[in-house]
Each structure stands twice: as C-alpha cells, then as structure tokens.
Amino acid sequence: MGIIIALIVFSVIIIFHEFGHFLLAKKNGIGVTEFALGMGPTIFGVKRGETTYCLKALPIGGLCAMVGEDSDEVGENSFNSKSVWQRMSVVAAGPIFNFIMAFVFALILVAVVGYDTPVISKVEENGPAWEAGIREGDVIHSLNGHRIYMYKEFRTEVLMDNSGEPLTLELERDGELYSTVVTPALSDNGTYMIQIYGGAYEKTGFFETLKYGALEVRYWITTTAKSLVQLVSGRVSVNDLSGPVGIVTMIDDTYNEAKSYGWLDVFLNMINISILLSANLGVMNLLPLPALDGGRLVFLIVEAIRGKPVPPEKEGWVHTAGLVLLMVLMVFILYNDIQKILL
C-alpha cells in the first residue's frame, strides 16, 4: 500500500508541475501536442483538440510537449514565435506551480496540526544548553542573528552547521529577551549537539495560518538550497543522495509507521512529504543546468540580453549533453538506493 501511495504522491506533484507549463503555454497561444504522465510507451491516450492526453508505462516524470519547443519551427502557435518574456513565463511556470502546490499543502498541514513553535520543551541537565542558562519553556527568537519562527528551522541550522563553533542565541523568558552563547558538544554519532528539544505545535488563526504556511514552504526551499551548497562544497557526499527508489522506500516506511495511528495521521504525513518533494522539485528544476527548466531559462536570459536567440542546434547540443549526464547521475543514485535497501 505504501508503494501505491508513493506513486500517487509522485504523480500529483509531477502532473501539477507539467500543468504549470501547460497552462502558461495555452495562455500565451502556444500549441501543446502532448500532455503526459510518465515516460516510455503510451498505455492510454485520448486526443482533445490539438493535444493528446496520455498515461505512459514508466511511472516517472511527465511531459508537456509544445509546438516548436525542440525545433526551429516558427508557426503562429509555436514556442519560438513568442516573445522571450512569454517563453520565460512558460518555462518558469513548472517550478512556480510546485511552490504553489507546496504552499497549498502547507496551509492544510498548519490548519490541521498547527505550526512548529520555537518553544524549548526539554533541556538536558548539564548539557551545553543547560550550562548556557537555557531552560524549558524558553522561546527561541534568533540564532546567530537569523530570526527563528519554527523549531525545525533552529534544529536544521544546528545540524547543518555541525562545526562545533559557538552559537549565539536570543531567547525569550517570561516576556523578556536575553542572549546567550552555547558551544555544541560532540555526540557519540559524530555530530555536534546542544542537547535541547522542541516540537510543540500550536494552532492559530486564518492570517497566521497563511504566514506559517508560507514559512513552511520557505523552510523547505532554503533547506534544499543549503543541502545543494553542502553537496557542492563536499560537506555532503553524493552517496547521501536519494532518488525515486529511496523516496518510495521513505514513503513506504512512513506509511507503515503512521497507519497504526489512523488514516488522518497517514494523510498528514503524506502531506508533509509532498511539501518537501514539491518544494525540492521546484528548486532542482530552477538550477541553471542543461536539460532542466533552469538551464532553459539561462538561454532565454542570454537571448534577452543579446537581443537574439542562441542558435537552436547549439542549445540542443548543450541540453542533450546535460540530459546524458543527468541520466548517468540518476543511474548512480538508483544503484546507491538499491545498495542501501540491500545492506
């Protein structure tokens, strides 16, 4: 059952991404020849107007094929006949729709569960935080000068830093602010910890729900971006990456753990994972890499600056080379995921 749920989650996120491209293409008068979920041979398809809507055999990826998108066709309804700004809006729409989806899901999560308050629920006695004067019930306001709205922001910042350097915290106690410096201690698992805990959720009103829904999405976007920086800098290994198999395994494990608490708990956990995946897909697609939406945006930006497009054959070579490299990376990640399952 967990695998079926994982496929549904993937499908919803991908189809909404492609729907962003589809909607903006139609809005700008660009013809769409095929709108598909999945890749490979077509299992089922139906044609409505100029567009064939279909389901493909491999349950990965999706497709919004536009007239002239990968050729030099310049007919009235072709991608190439539109202004550079119209084409940029079409390309950017997919990732933007992922962020919109993440926001809608975040609103549902915050409305039902509440937001993750930055309140400290427990402090280990004689630990670094205790020695710095931090106590249960204190509210975290900032970490190293950065405003903290949710406890998960604080926890992630501490874990991602993981350098053992002193942390400057501003906290609130009994309505008054105070500052302290905490030096993390090295734990048995090799990470630096300050030995405090949070995780208290609080429901709030309509406008606060909007606020914390947006903050939830911002958290996942910034966390994804920071993870990429750590990957490039070598602080995170490529072996730590997960692909579709790893994500399906995570969803299946989450389902099996949550189902004993009832379907509402399963639903909320899937909503939370969908926020993570949708925001992650949006960020990844905006990376300035060939074959991704971000790579195509780079060429369109260059066109806007120089006043004429890059020759289609040259752009095609770059995207093809990028696609090959991405496929090699995906095969490596797939192998890595399978190894993790088998070990």
Give a structural overview.
- The protein has 343 residues and is of the alpha+beta class.
- It has 2 domains: 2-112 and 275-342, no CATH class; 115-202, PDZ domain (Pdz3 Domain, Roll).
- 53% of the residues lie in helices and 19% in strands.
- The strands form 5 sheets. Strands 6-5-7-8 form a 4-stranded antiparallel β-sheet. Strands 1-2 form a two-stranded antiparallel sheet.
- Helix 5 packs across helix 7 (263-285).
- The longest helix has 31 residues, at 312-342.
- It starts with a helix and ends with a helix.
- The relative contact order is 0.12.
- The mean pLDDT is 88.
Rough outline? elongated
- As a whole number of angstroms, the C-alpha radius of gyration is 23 Å
- Mean pLDDT over the full residue set: 88
Helix content: 40-55%
Q: Number of domains in the coordinates?
A: 2
Order of helices and strands: HEEHEEHEEHEEEEEEHHHHH
Count the E strands. 12
N-C termini distance? 23 Å
Number of helices: 9
Low-confidence parts = none
The share of residues in extended strands comes to 15-25%
Largest sheet: 4 strands, antiparallel
**Which class best fits the helix and strand makeup?**
alpha+beta
Strand order in the sheet with the most strands? 6-5-7-8
Give me the oligomer status. single chain
Give a short summary of the structure:
The chain has 343 residues and is an alpha+beta fold. It contains 9 helices and 12 strands. Strands 6-5-7-8 form a 4-stranded antiparallel sheet. A two-stranded antiparallel sheet has the order 1-2.
